[in-house]
Design the sequence.
Protein backbone atom coordinates (compact mmCIF):
# COMPACT_ATOMS: atom_id res chain seq x y z
CA UNK A 1 0.00 0.00 0.00
CA UNK A 2 2.75 2.43 0.96
CA UNK A 3 4.63 1.40 -2.16
CA UNK A 4 1.62 2.40 -4.21
CA UNK A 5 1.68 5.88 -2.68
CA UNK A 6 5.40 6.50 -2.67
CA UNK A 7 6.13 4.63 -5.89
CA UNK A 8 3.83 6.99 -7.78
CA UNK A 9 4.51 10.18 -5.86
CA UNK A 10 4.99 12.25 -9.03
CA UNK A 11 1.46 11.37 -10.15
CA UNK A 12 0.03 12.24 -6.73
CA UNK A 13 1.51 15.70 -7.08
CA UNK A 14 -0.11 15.98 -10.51
CA UNK A 15 -3.46 15.03 -9.00
CA UNK A 16 -3.02 17.55 -6.15
CA UNK A 17 -2.15 20.30 -8.62
CA UNK A 18 -5.12 19.32 -10.80
CA UNK A 19 -7.45 19.59 -7.79
CA UNK A 20 -6.02 22.96 -6.76
CA UNK A 21 -6.53 24.28 -10.28
CA UNK A 22 -10.08 22.97 -10.45
CA UNK A 23 -10.86 24.46 -7.02
CA UNK A 24 -9.49 27.83 -8.10
CA UNK A 25 -11.62 27.92 -11.21
CA UNK A 26 -14.82 26.80 -9.51
CA UNK A 27 -14.78 28.67 -6.21
CA UNK A 28 -12.66 31.82 -6.56
CA UNK A 29 -14.72 34.95 -7.15
CA UNK A 30 -12.10 37.07 -8.87
CA UNK A 31 -11.71 36.42 -12.56
CA UNK A 32 -7.91 36.74 -12.40
CA UNK A 33 -7.80 33.99 -9.79
CA UNK A 34 -9.86 31.82 -12.09
CA UNK A 35 -7.20 32.28 -14.74
CA UNK A 36 -4.52 31.35 -12.23
CA UNK A 37 -6.49 28.19 -11.47
CA UNK A 38 -6.69 27.44 -15.18
CA UNK A 39 -2.95 27.86 -15.50
CA UNK A 40 -2.32 25.50 -12.56
CA UNK A 41 -4.67 22.94 -14.14
CA UNK A 42 -2.70 23.06 -17.39
CA UNK A 43 0.60 22.77 -15.51
CA UNK A 44 -0.62 19.64 -13.75
CA UNK A 45 -1.24 17.92 -17.10
CA UNK A 46 2.13 19.12 -18.41
CA UNK A 47 3.89 17.66 -15.35
CA UNK A 48 1.92 14.44 -15.77
CA UNK A 49 3.30 14.03 -19.30
CA UNK A 50 6.82 14.84 -18.17
CA UNK A 51 6.70 12.30 -15.35
CA UNK A 52 5.36 9.67 -17.76
CA UNK A 53 8.50 10.08 -19.85
CA UNK A 54 10.99 9.53 -17.03
CA UNK A 55 12.85 6.25 -16.60
CA UNK A 56 15.10 5.15 -13.75
CA UNK A 57 18.81 5.10 -14.71
CA UNK A 58 18.16 6.55 -18.15
CA UNK A 59 20.02 9.42 -19.78
CA UNK A 60 18.95 12.26 -22.03
CA UNK A 61 17.91 11.19 -25.54
CA UNK A 62 21.16 12.27 -27.20
CA UNK A 63 23.25 9.54 -28.82
CA UNK A 64 25.98 8.32 -26.46
CA UNK A 65 28.87 6.23 -27.88
CA UNK A 66 28.89 3.99 -24.81
CA UNK A 67 25.20 3.07 -25.09
CA UNK A 68 23.95 1.43 -28.28
CA UNK A 69 20.82 2.88 -29.84
CA UNK A 70 18.99 -0.43 -29.37
CA UNK A 71 19.05 -0.04 -25.58
CA UNK A 72 15.90 2.06 -25.43
CA UNK A 73 15.66 1.56 -21.67
CA UNK A 74 18.80 3.67 -21.26
CA UNK A 75 17.36 6.69 -23.03
CA UNK A 76 14.49 8.83 -21.83
CA UNK A 77 11.47 9.14 -24.12
CA UNK A 78 11.79 12.59 -25.75
CA UNK A 79 8.34 12.68 -27.33
CA UNK A 80 6.24 13.69 -24.26
CA UNK A 81 8.66 16.56 -23.60
CA UNK A 82 8.31 17.75 -27.16
CA UNK A 83 4.53 17.54 -26.97
CA UNK A 84 4.56 19.54 -23.77
CA UNK A 85 6.64 22.30 -25.37
CA UNK A 86 3.70 22.75 -27.74
CA UNK A 87 1.22 22.52 -24.87
CA UNK A 88 3.13 25.21 -22.96
CA UNK A 89 2.93 27.48 -26.01
CA UNK A 90 -0.81 26.82 -26.18
CA UNK A 91 -1.06 27.68 -22.49
CA UNK A 92 0.77 30.97 -22.98
CA UNK A 93 -1.50 31.91 -25.87
CA UNK A 94 -4.57 31.04 -23.79
CA UNK A 95 -3.33 33.22 -20.94
CA UNK A 96 -2.76 36.07 -23.38
CA UNK A 97 -6.28 35.84 -24.78
CA UNK A 98 -7.74 35.50 -21.28
CA UNK A 99 -6.00 38.64 -20.00
CA UNK A 100 -7.03 40.55 -23.12
CA UNK A 101 -10.64 39.61 -22.42
CA UNK A 102 -10.23 40.68 -18.79
CA UNK A 103 -8.95 44.09 -19.90
CA UNK A 104 -11.99 44.44 -22.17
CA UNK A 105 -14.30 43.41 -19.32
CA UNK A 106 -12.63 45.83 -16.89
CA UNK A 107 -12.85 48.72 -19.35
CA UNK A 108 -16.58 48.14 -19.76
CA UNK A 109 -17.64 47.33 -16.18
CA UNK A 110 -14.80 48.63 -13.91
CA UNK A 111 -14.75 45.40 -11.91
CA UNK A 112 -13.29 41.91 -12.10
CA UNK A 113 -15.31 40.43 -9.24
CA UNK A 114 -17.73 37.88 -10.66
CA UNK A 115 -20.63 38.75 -8.36
CA UNK A 116 -20.39 42.51 -8.94
CA UNK A 117 -19.91 41.92 -12.63
CA UNK A 118 -23.11 39.90 -12.94
CA UNK A 119 -25.00 42.56 -10.98
CA UNK A 120 -23.69 45.32 -13.26
CA UNK A 121 -24.57 43.32 -16.36
CA UNK A 122 -28.16 42.92 -15.22
CA UNK A 123 -28.56 46.59 -14.29
CA UNK B 1 -0.08 15.32 -59.17
CA UNK B 2 -1.82 18.09 -57.26
CA UNK B 3 -4.55 15.68 -56.12
CA UNK B 4 -2.27 14.05 -53.56
CA UNK B 5 -1.41 17.45 -52.05
CA UNK B 6 -4.99 18.60 -51.57
CA UNK B 7 -5.28 17.83 -47.81
CA UNK B 8 -2.34 20.10 -47.00
CA UNK B 9 -3.37 22.74 -49.56
CA UNK B 10 -6.81 23.21 -47.98
CA UNK B 11 -5.23 24.06 -44.61
CA UNK B 12 -2.49 26.14 -46.25
CA UNK B 13 -5.04 28.27 -48.13
CA UNK B 14 -6.26 29.59 -44.78
CA UNK B 15 -2.71 30.13 -43.47
CA UNK B 16 -1.82 32.05 -46.62
CA UNK B 17 -4.83 34.34 -46.36
CA UNK B 18 -4.39 34.78 -42.60
CA UNK B 19 -1.05 36.39 -43.55
CA UNK B 20 -2.25 38.20 -46.68
CA UNK B 21 -5.19 39.92 -44.97
CA UNK B 22 -3.08 41.94 -42.46
CA UNK B 23 -0.53 42.76 -45.16
CA UNK B 24 -3.05 44.02 -47.71
CA UNK B 25 -5.11 45.78 -45.04
CA UNK B 26 -2.15 48.05 -44.35
CA UNK B 27 -2.63 49.28 -47.89
CA UNK B 28 -6.43 49.25 -48.17
CA UNK B 29 -8.46 48.30 -45.10
CA UNK B 30 -11.57 47.50 -47.15
CA UNK B 31 -9.70 44.60 -48.80
CA UNK B 32 -9.98 42.41 -45.68
CA UNK B 33 -13.43 41.00 -46.38
CA UNK B 34 -12.93 40.30 -50.13
CA UNK B 35 -9.64 38.55 -49.32
CA UNK B 36 -11.34 36.40 -46.69
CA UNK B 37 -13.96 35.46 -49.28
CA UNK B 38 -11.22 34.58 -51.78
CA UNK B 39 -9.40 32.51 -49.17
CA UNK B 40 -12.41 30.49 -48.12
CA UNK B 41 -13.50 30.26 -51.76
CA UNK B 42 -10.12 28.76 -52.64
CA UNK B 43 -10.44 26.28 -49.78
CA UNK B 44 -14.00 25.38 -50.80
CA UNK B 45 -12.91 24.82 -54.43
CA UNK B 46 -10.01 22.64 -53.30
CA UNK B 47 -12.29 20.62 -51.04
CA UNK B 48 -14.72 20.13 -53.92
CA UNK B 49 -11.88 18.88 -56.17
CA UNK B 50 -10.59 16.73 -53.35
CA UNK B 51 -14.03 15.24 -52.81
CA UNK B 52 -14.43 14.39 -56.52
CA UNK B 53 -10.92 12.96 -56.44
CA UNK B 54 -11.85 10.86 -53.42
CA UNK B 55 -14.87 9.47 -55.26
CA UNK B 56 -12.68 8.51 -58.26
CA UNK B 57 -9.39 7.46 -56.67
CA UNK B 58 -10.09 6.70 -53.00
CA UNK B 59 -8.62 7.99 -49.76
CA UNK B 60 -5.36 9.93 -49.45
CA UNK B 61 -2.97 9.75 -46.50
CA UNK B 62 -0.74 12.82 -46.61
CA UNK B 63 2.53 12.41 -44.71
CA UNK B 64 4.11 15.69 -43.61
CA UNK B 65 7.76 15.95 -44.60
CA UNK B 66 7.61 12.46 -46.03
CA UNK B 67 7.81 10.93 -42.54
CA UNK B 68 5.50 7.97 -42.37
CA UNK B 69 3.42 7.40 -39.25
CA UNK B 70 3.83 6.50 -36.44
CA UNK B 71 6.96 8.69 -36.56
CA UNK B 72 5.51 11.53 -38.60
CA UNK B 73 2.23 13.43 -38.60
CA UNK B 74 -0.35 12.73 -41.27
CA UNK B 75 -3.53 14.20 -42.70
CA UNK B 76 -6.13 11.52 -43.44
CA UNK B 77 -8.38 12.45 -46.34
CA UNK B 78 -10.93 9.64 -46.31
CA UNK B 79 -14.66 9.69 -47.03
CA UNK B 80 -15.70 11.18 -43.71
CA UNK B 81 -13.11 13.95 -43.58
CA UNK B 82 -13.49 14.81 -47.30
CA UNK B 83 -17.23 15.17 -46.71
CA UNK B 84 -16.85 17.30 -43.58
CA UNK B 85 -14.25 19.59 -45.11
CA UNK B 86 -16.48 20.22 -48.10
CA UNK B 87 -19.43 21.08 -45.85
CA UNK B 88 -17.63 23.43 -43.48
CA UNK B 89 -15.71 25.31 -46.17
CA UNK B 90 -18.82 25.86 -48.31
CA UNK B 91 -20.77 27.20 -45.33
CA UNK B 92 -17.83 29.42 -44.32
CA UNK B 93 -17.64 30.84 -47.85
CA UNK B 94 -21.33 31.79 -47.85
CA UNK B 95 -21.18 33.31 -44.36
CA UNK B 96 -18.07 35.36 -45.17
CA UNK B 97 -19.72 36.75 -48.32
CA UNK B 98 -22.65 37.75 -46.13
CA UNK B 99 -20.52 39.50 -43.48
CA UNK B 100 -19.55 42.48 -45.66
CA UNK B 101 -22.16 44.95 -44.43
CA UNK B 102 -22.45 43.51 -40.93
CA UNK B 103 -18.72 43.97 -40.35
CA UNK B 104 -19.01 47.62 -41.39
CA UNK B 105 -21.97 48.18 -39.10
CA UNK B 106 -21.14 46.13 -35.99
CA UNK B 107 -17.38 46.55 -35.67
CA UNK B 108 -16.18 49.33 -38.01
CA UNK B 109 -12.42 49.63 -38.35
CA UNK B 110 -11.83 46.16 -36.93
CA UNK B 111 -12.30 44.25 -40.19
CA UNK B 112 -8.62 43.33 -40.48
CA UNK B 113 -8.29 41.48 -37.12
CA UNK B 114 -11.76 40.02 -37.48
CA UNK B 115 -11.20 38.38 -40.85
CA UNK B 116 -7.67 37.27 -39.91
CA UNK B 117 -9.17 35.54 -36.86
CA UNK B 118 -11.87 34.01 -39.06
CA UNK B 119 -9.18 32.56 -41.33
CA UNK B 120 -7.24 31.18 -38.34
CA UNK B 121 -10.38 29.66 -36.91
CA UNK B 122 -11.17 27.96 -40.21
CA UNK B 123 -7.57 26.70 -40.30
CA UNK B 124 -8.15 25.15 -36.89
CA UNK B 125 -11.44 23.55 -37.93
CA UNK B 126 -10.01 22.13 -41.15
CA UNK B 127 -6.98 20.82 -39.29
CA UNK B 128 -9.22 19.17 -36.70
CA UNK B 129 -11.17 17.42 -39.43
CA UNK B 130 -8.17 16.36 -41.51
CA UNK B 131 -5.58 15.36 -38.96
CA UNK B 132 -4.85 11.71 -38.23
CA UNK B 133 -2.90 12.34 -35.06
CA UNK B 134 -4.40 12.81 -31.60
CA UNK B 135 -1.97 15.44 -30.34
CA UNK B 136 -2.11 17.34 -33.60
CA UNK B 137 -5.87 17.40 -33.11
CA UNK B 138 -5.36 19.04 -29.70
CA UNK B 139 -3.19 21.75 -31.27
CA UNK B 140 -5.76 22.50 -33.99
CA UNK B 141 -8.53 22.41 -31.37
CA UNK B 142 -6.73 25.13 -29.42
CA UNK B 143 -6.02 27.19 -32.56
CA UNK B 144 -9.68 27.20 -33.51
CA UNK B 145 -10.78 27.78 -29.90
CA UNK B 146 -8.45 30.73 -29.32
CA UNK B 147 -9.61 32.33 -32.55
CA UNK B 148 -13.26 31.70 -31.70
CA UNK B 149 -12.86 33.28 -28.22
CA UNK B 150 -11.65 36.39 -29.99
CA UNK B 151 -14.50 36.30 -32.52
CA UNK B 152 -17.12 35.80 -29.79
CA UNK B 153 -15.69 38.71 -27.78
CA UNK B 154 -16.49 41.06 -30.70
CA UNK B 155 -20.09 42.09 -30.28
CA UNK B 156 -22.39 43.58 -27.67
CA UNK B 157 -21.27 45.05 -24.38
CA UNK B 158 -21.30 41.77 -22.45
CA UNK B 159 -19.67 39.74 -25.23
CA UNK B 160 -16.18 39.69 -23.59
CA UNK B 161 -17.64 38.19 -20.41
CA UNK B 162 -19.41 35.39 -22.28
CA UNK B 163 -16.22 34.81 -24.28
CA UNK B 164 -14.29 34.65 -21.00
CA UNK B 165 -16.66 32.04 -19.61
CA UNK B 166 -16.29 30.04 -22.82
CA UNK B 167 -12.52 30.35 -22.52
CA UNK B 168 -12.49 28.94 -18.98
CA UNK B 169 -14.83 26.04 -19.83
CA UNK B 170 -13.30 25.41 -23.25
CA UNK B 171 -9.70 25.37 -22.02
CA UNK B 172 -10.65 23.00 -19.21
CA UNK B 173 -12.20 20.74 -21.83
CA UNK B 174 -9.07 20.93 -23.97
CA UNK B 175 -6.89 20.12 -20.95
CA UNK B 176 -9.02 17.09 -20.05
CA UNK B 177 -8.69 15.89 -23.65
CA UNK B 178 -4.90 16.32 -23.38
CA UNK B 179 -4.89 14.24 -20.18
CA UNK B 180 -6.86 11.56 -22.03
CA UNK B 181 -4.24 11.50 -24.79
CA UNK B 182 -1.59 11.12 -22.08
CA UNK B 183 -3.33 8.00 -20.73
CA UNK B 184 -3.65 6.49 -24.21
CA UNK B 185 -0.04 7.30 -25.04
CA UNK B 186 1.24 5.53 -21.93
CA UNK B 187 -0.61 2.31 -22.76
CA UNK B 188 -0.11 2.23 -26.55
CA UNK B 189 3.02 4.31 -27.20
CA UNK B 190 1.57 5.97 -30.28
CA UNK B 191 -0.50 9.03 -31.13
CA UNK B 192 -1.53 8.09 -34.66
CA UNK B 193 -5.25 7.26 -34.95
CA UNK B 194 -4.87 4.36 -37.39
CA UNK B 195 -1.89 2.92 -35.54
CA UNK B 196 -3.60 3.24 -32.19
CA UNK B 197 -6.86 1.65 -33.32
CA UNK B 198 -4.83 -1.47 -34.27
CA UNK B 199 -3.23 -1.57 -30.82
CA UNK B 200 -6.18 -0.76 -28.57
CA UNK B 201 -7.79 -4.26 -28.63
CA UNK B 202 -4.54 -5.65 -27.18
CA UNK B 203 -4.69 -3.34 -24.15
CA UNK B 204 -8.47 -3.14 -23.84
CA UNK B 205 -8.54 -4.62 -20.33
CA UNK B 206 -6.37 -1.78 -19.00
CA UNK B 207 -8.58 0.62 -17.03
CA UNK B 208 -6.55 3.57 -18.33
CA UNK B 209 -8.11 3.06 -21.78
CA UNK B 210 -11.67 3.59 -20.65
CA UNK B 211 -10.63 6.44 -18.33
CA UNK B 212 -8.95 8.07 -21.34
CA UNK B 213 -12.11 7.64 -23.40
CA UNK B 214 -14.23 9.30 -20.71
CA UNK B 215 -11.78 12.21 -20.40
CA UNK B 216 -11.74 12.68 -24.18
CA UNK B 217 -15.54 12.53 -24.48
CA UNK B 218 -15.91 15.12 -21.70
CA UNK B 219 -13.22 17.33 -23.25
CA UNK B 220 -14.64 17.27 -26.75
CA UNK B 221 -18.20 17.26 -25.41
CA UNK B 222 -17.53 20.75 -24.05
CA UNK B 223 -16.71 21.96 -27.55
CA UNK B 224 -19.66 20.09 -29.04
CA UNK B 225 -22.02 21.47 -26.35
CA UNK B 226 -23.15 17.97 -25.39
CA UNK B 227 -25.89 18.33 -22.77
CA UNK B 228 -24.34 18.91 -19.33
CA UNK B 229 -21.39 20.78 -20.89
CA UNK B 230 -23.48 23.25 -22.93
CA UNK B 231 -23.48 26.13 -20.43
CA UNK B 232 -21.19 28.42 -22.41
CA UNK B 233 -23.17 28.27 -25.66
CA UNK B 234 -26.33 30.42 -25.25
CA UNK B 235 -24.50 33.52 -23.94
CA UNK B 236 -21.64 33.14 -26.38
CA UNK B 237 -23.96 32.97 -29.40
CA UNK B 238 -26.38 35.64 -28.22
CA UNK B 239 -23.96 38.47 -27.49
CA UNK B 240 -21.42 37.86 -30.26
CA UNK B 241 -21.65 39.85 -33.47
CA UNK B 242 -24.14 38.44 -36.00
CA UNK B 243 -21.45 37.39 -38.44
CA UNK B 244 -19.35 35.69 -35.72
CA UNK B 245 -22.34 33.67 -34.62
CA UNK B 246 -23.24 32.77 -38.18
CA UNK B 247 -19.68 31.56 -38.73
CA UNK B 248 -19.20 29.65 -35.47
CA UNK B 249 -22.65 28.18 -34.84
CA UNK B 250 -22.98 26.03 -37.98
CA UNK B 251 -19.36 24.86 -38.00
CA UNK B 252 -17.81 24.78 -34.52
CA UNK B 253 -20.01 22.27 -32.71
CA UNK B 254 -20.21 20.02 -35.79
CA UNK B 255 -16.45 19.70 -36.01
CA UNK B 256 -16.29 18.65 -32.36
CA UNK B 257 -19.10 16.15 -32.98
CA UNK B 258 -17.11 14.84 -35.95
CA UNK B 259 -14.18 14.19 -33.62
CA UNK B 260 -16.46 12.22 -31.30
CA UNK B 261 -17.36 10.07 -34.33
CA UNK B 262 -13.67 9.57 -35.07
CA UNK B 263 -12.86 8.57 -31.52
CA UNK B 264 -15.88 6.42 -30.70
CA UNK B 265 -16.46 4.66 -34.03
CA UNK B 266 -13.05 4.68 -35.73
CA UNK B 267 -10.48 4.70 -32.92
CA UNK B 268 -12.12 2.62 -30.19
CA UNK B 269 -14.99 0.86 -31.92
CA UNK B 270 -18.31 0.31 -30.21
CA UNK B 271 -17.65 -3.36 -29.30
CA UNK B 272 -14.50 -2.46 -27.39
CA UNK B 273 -16.25 0.32 -25.46
CA UNK B 274 -19.41 -1.60 -24.65
CA UNK B 275 -17.43 -4.61 -23.44
CA UNK B 276 -16.15 -2.42 -20.59
CA UNK B 277 -18.94 0.06 -19.86
CA UNK B 278 -22.21 1.05 -21.60
CA UNK B 279 -20.76 4.44 -22.52
CA UNK B 280 -22.49 4.73 -25.90
CA UNK B 281 -25.86 4.38 -24.16
CA UNK B 282 -24.84 7.06 -21.65
CA UNK B 283 -23.90 9.41 -24.49
CA UNK B 284 -27.20 8.64 -26.21
CA UNK B 285 -29.25 9.40 -23.09
CA UNK B 286 -27.32 12.66 -22.55
CA UNK B 287 -28.03 13.56 -26.17
CA UNK B 288 -31.76 12.86 -25.62
CA UNK B 289 -31.86 15.06 -22.52
CA UNK B 290 -30.02 17.72 -24.52
CA UNK B 291 -32.55 17.51 -27.36
CA UNK B 292 -35.53 17.99 -25.04
CA UNK B 293 -33.81 20.60 -22.83
CA UNK B 294 -32.69 22.65 -25.84
CA UNK B 295 -36.13 22.58 -27.43
CA UNK B 296 -37.97 23.51 -24.23
CA UNK B 297 -35.55 26.32 -23.43
CA UNK B 298 -35.85 27.58 -27.01
CA UNK B 299 -39.61 27.93 -26.58
CA UNK B 300 -39.04 30.08 -23.49
CA UNK B 301 -36.79 32.62 -25.29
CA UNK B 302 -37.95 35.96 -26.63
CA UNK B 303 -34.69 36.81 -28.40
CA UNK B 304 -34.26 35.20 -31.82
CA UNK B 305 -30.51 34.61 -31.55
CA UNK B 306 -30.84 33.09 -28.09
CA UNK B 307 -33.64 30.86 -29.29
CA UNK B 308 -31.47 29.66 -32.17
CA UNK B 309 -28.60 29.03 -29.74
CA UNK B 310 -30.77 26.76 -27.60
CA UNK B 311 -32.05 25.10 -30.73
CA UNK B 312 -28.37 24.41 -31.60
CA UNK B 313 -27.97 22.49 -28.33
CA UNK B 314 -31.00 20.45 -29.26
CA UNK B 315 -29.81 19.79 -32.82
CA UNK B 316 -26.32 18.71 -31.76
CA UNK B 317 -28.17 16.14 -29.65
CA UNK B 318 -29.53 14.51 -32.82
CA UNK B 319 -26.01 14.16 -34.22
CA UNK B 320 -24.66 12.61 -31.02
CA UNK B 321 -27.72 10.37 -30.78
CA UNK B 322 -26.95 9.00 -34.26
CA UNK B 323 -23.43 8.30 -33.04
CA UNK B 324 -24.69 6.38 -30.02
CA UNK B 325 -26.96 4.22 -32.22
CA UNK B 326 -23.81 2.96 -34.00
CA UNK B 327 -25.69 1.39 -36.91
CA UNK B 328 -25.56 2.44 -40.60
CA UNK B 329 -28.90 4.29 -40.47
CA UNK B 330 -27.93 6.22 -37.35
CA UNK B 331 -24.52 7.05 -38.81
CA UNK B 332 -25.95 8.26 -42.13
CA UNK B 333 -28.75 10.15 -40.38
CA UNK B 334 -26.35 11.88 -38.03
CA UNK B 335 -23.95 12.94 -40.79
CA UNK B 336 -26.80 14.03 -43.03
CA UNK B 337 -27.97 16.07 -40.07
CA UNK B 338 -24.50 17.65 -39.88
CA UNK B 339 -25.01 19.01 -43.42
CA UNK B 340 -28.64 19.91 -42.89
CA UNK B 341 -28.11 21.61 -39.61
CA UNK B 342 -25.08 23.49 -40.88
CA UNK B 343 -27.16 24.84 -43.79
CA UNK B 344 -30.30 25.50 -41.74
CA UNK B 345 -28.55 27.17 -38.81
CA UNK B 346 -26.35 29.23 -41.10
CA UNK B 347 -29.46 30.37 -42.97
CA UNK B 348 -31.34 31.21 -39.76
CA UNK B 349 -28.40 33.12 -38.27
CA UNK B 350 -27.94 35.02 -41.55
CA UNK B 351 -31.63 35.97 -41.36
CA UNK B 352 -31.13 37.19 -37.80
CA UNK B 353 -28.13 39.17 -39.06
CA UNK B 354 -30.25 40.71 -41.83
CA UNK B 355 -32.97 41.68 -39.36
CA UNK B 356 -30.46 43.12 -36.89
CA UNK B 357 -28.93 45.25 -39.61
CA UNK B 358 -32.29 46.67 -40.72
CA UNK B 359 -34.37 46.64 -37.55
CA UNK B 360 -31.62 46.93 -34.94
CA UNK B 361 -33.10 44.12 -32.85
CA UNK B 362 -34.27 40.52 -33.10
CA UNK B 363 -36.79 40.55 -30.29
CA UNK B 364 -39.48 38.04 -31.25
CA UNK B 365 -42.24 39.85 -29.33
CA UNK B 366 -41.74 42.87 -31.58
CA UNK B 367 -41.97 40.86 -34.82
CA UNK B 368 -45.10 41.69 -36.80
CA UNK B 369 -46.68 41.20 -40.19
CA UNK B 370 -44.95 44.23 -41.66
CA UNK B 371 -41.84 42.04 -41.84
CA UNK B 372 -43.21 40.04 -44.71
CA UNK B 373 -43.71 43.18 -46.72
CA UNK B 374 -40.41 44.78 -45.76
CA UNK B 375 -38.20 41.69 -46.15
CA UNK B 376 -40.01 39.26 -48.47
CA UNK B 377 -36.95 37.21 -49.45
CA UNK B 378 -35.34 37.17 -46.00
CA UNK B 379 -38.55 35.98 -44.41
CA UNK B 380 -39.12 33.43 -47.17
CA UNK B 381 -35.65 31.99 -46.48
CA UNK B 382 -36.45 31.99 -42.79
CA UNK B 383 -39.65 30.09 -43.44
CA UNK B 384 -37.89 27.46 -45.55
CA UNK B 385 -35.18 26.95 -42.93
CA UNK B 386 -37.73 26.90 -40.09
CA UNK B 387 -39.90 24.31 -41.81
CA UNK B 388 -36.79 22.27 -42.50
CA UNK B 389 -35.83 22.48 -38.80
CA UNK B 390 -39.26 21.17 -37.88
CA UNK B 391 -38.73 18.38 -40.37
CA UNK B 392 -41.42 18.49 -43.02
CA UNK B 393 -40.75 16.78 -46.36
CA UNK B 394 -39.40 17.46 -48.99
CA UNK B 395 -37.01 19.74 -47.08
CA UNK B 396 -33.65 18.45 -45.90
CA UNK B 397 -34.46 18.35 -42.18
CA UNK B 398 -37.08 15.65 -42.67
CA UNK B 399 -34.67 13.13 -44.16
CA UNK B 400 -32.00 13.23 -41.46
CA UNK B 401 -34.69 12.75 -38.81
CA UNK B 402 -36.19 9.96 -40.93
CA UNK B 403 -32.90 8.05 -41.07
CA UNK B 404 -32.25 8.65 -37.38
CA UNK B 405 -35.72 7.26 -36.67
CA UNK B 406 -34.95 4.23 -38.85
CA UNK B 407 -31.76 3.79 -36.84
CA UNK B 408 -33.64 3.80 -33.53
CA UNK B 409 -36.14 1.26 -34.92
CA UNK B 410 -33.22 -0.89 -36.09
CA UNK B 411 -31.86 -0.93 -32.52
CA UNK B 412 -35.40 -1.27 -31.10
CA UNK B 413 -34.66 1.80 -29.01
CA UNK B 414 -38.17 3.20 -28.56
CA UNK B 415 -37.14 5.86 -26.04
CA UNK B 416 -34.92 7.60 -28.59
CA UNK B 417 -37.65 7.34 -31.24
CA UNK B 418 -40.10 9.03 -28.88
CA UNK B 419 -37.58 11.80 -28.21
CA UNK B 420 -37.18 12.46 -31.96
CA UNK B 421 -40.94 12.73 -32.44
CA UNK B 422 -41.59 14.88 -29.35
CA UNK B 423 -38.75 17.26 -30.16
CA UNK B 424 -40.03 17.74 -33.74
CA UNK B 425 -43.27 18.86 -32.18
CA UNK B 426 -41.41 21.25 -29.85
CA UNK B 427 -39.45 22.60 -32.84
CA UNK B 428 -42.76 23.31 -34.52
CA UNK B 429 -43.91 25.28 -31.48
CA UNK B 430 -40.99 27.66 -31.39
CA UNK B 431 -40.72 28.25 -35.11
CA UNK B 432 -44.41 28.48 -35.97
CA UNK B 433 -45.02 31.16 -33.35
CA UNK B 434 -42.67 33.41 -35.36
CA UNK B 435 -44.20 32.41 -38.69
CA UNK B 436 -47.63 33.08 -37.21
CA UNK B 437 -46.59 36.61 -36.20
CA UNK B 438 -45.15 37.35 -39.62
CA UNK B 439 -47.55 35.66 -42.03
CA UNK B 440 -50.96 35.27 -40.44
CA UNK B 441 -52.23 38.82 -40.97
CA UNK B 442 -52.83 40.72 -44.15
CA UNK B 443 -50.90 44.03 -44.25
CA UNK B 444 -53.01 45.43 -47.10
CA UNK B 445 -56.36 44.81 -45.46
CA UNK B 446 -58.17 47.69 -43.83
CA UNK B 447 -58.42 45.80 -40.57
CA UNK B 448 -57.33 48.10 -37.73
CA UNK B 449 -55.20 45.39 -36.14
CA UNK B 450 -52.83 45.32 -39.09
CA UNK B 451 -49.98 47.70 -39.75
CA UNK B 452 -50.15 50.84 -41.79
CA UNK B 453 -50.09 50.52 -45.57
CA UNK B 454 -47.13 52.90 -45.95
CA UNK B 455 -44.65 50.13 -45.11
CA UNK B 456 -42.23 49.95 -48.01
CA UNK B 457 -40.10 47.08 -49.18
CA UNK B 458 -36.77 47.44 -47.37
CA UNK B 459 -34.87 44.29 -48.32
CA UNK B 460 -31.16 43.92 -47.47
CA UNK B 461 -28.49 44.31 -50.14
CA UNK B 462 -27.64 41.60 -52.67
CA UNK B 463 -24.41 40.54 -50.99
CA UNK B 464 -26.40 39.62 -47.89
CA UNK B 465 -29.48 38.29 -49.61
CA UNK B 466 -27.72 35.92 -52.03
CA UNK B 467 -26.05 33.68 -49.40
CA UNK B 468 -29.29 33.56 -47.41
CA UNK B 469 -31.31 32.47 -50.44
CA UNK B 470 -28.63 30.02 -51.62
CA UNK B 471 -28.69 28.34 -48.21
CA UNK B 472 -32.49 28.18 -48.25
CA UNK B 473 -32.48 26.67 -51.75
CA UNK B 474 -29.75 24.22 -50.76
CA UNK B 475 -32.23 22.75 -48.27
CA UNK B 476 -34.46 21.77 -51.19
CA UNK B 477 -31.45 20.41 -53.10
CA UNK B 478 -30.21 18.34 -50.14
CA UNK B 479 -33.75 17.15 -49.55
CA UNK B 480 -34.16 15.90 -53.12
CA UNK B 481 -30.60 14.53 -53.30
CA UNK B 482 -30.81 12.81 -49.91
CA UNK B 483 -30.71 9.30 -51.47
CA UNK B 484 -27.35 10.07 -53.12
CA UNK B 485 -25.82 11.54 -49.94
CA UNK B 486 -27.15 8.76 -47.71
CA UNK B 487 -25.88 6.12 -50.18
CA UNK B 488 -22.43 7.70 -49.96
CA UNK B 489 -22.58 7.89 -46.15
CA UNK B 490 -23.74 4.26 -45.80
CA UNK B 491 -20.68 3.23 -47.83
CA UNK B 492 -18.22 4.91 -45.48
CA UNK B 493 -19.78 3.44 -42.33
CA UNK B 494 -16.73 2.00 -40.53
CA UNK B 495 -18.14 -1.20 -38.99
CA UNK B 496 -19.57 -3.38 -41.79
Sequence:
Amino acid sequence: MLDFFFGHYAYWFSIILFSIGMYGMLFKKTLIKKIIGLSILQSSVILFFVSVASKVDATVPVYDYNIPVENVANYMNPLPHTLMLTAIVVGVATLGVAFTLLIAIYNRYQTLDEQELIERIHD
Amino acid sequence: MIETQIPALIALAFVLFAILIPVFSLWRSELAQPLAVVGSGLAATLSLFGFINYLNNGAIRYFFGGWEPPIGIEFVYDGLSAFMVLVINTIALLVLIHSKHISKREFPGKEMPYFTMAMLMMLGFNGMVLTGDLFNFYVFLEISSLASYALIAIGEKQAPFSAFRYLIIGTTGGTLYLLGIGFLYTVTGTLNLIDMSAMLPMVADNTAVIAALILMIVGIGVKAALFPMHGWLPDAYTYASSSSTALIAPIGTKVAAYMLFRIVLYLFGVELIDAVAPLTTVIGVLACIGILYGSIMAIAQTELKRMLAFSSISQIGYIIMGLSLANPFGFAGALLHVVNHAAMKACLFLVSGNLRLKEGHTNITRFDDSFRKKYPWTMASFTVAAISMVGLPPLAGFFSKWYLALGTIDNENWLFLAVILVSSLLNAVYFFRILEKVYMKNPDAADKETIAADVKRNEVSTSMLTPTIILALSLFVIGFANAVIVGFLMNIFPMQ
Residues 288-496 of chain B form one domain.
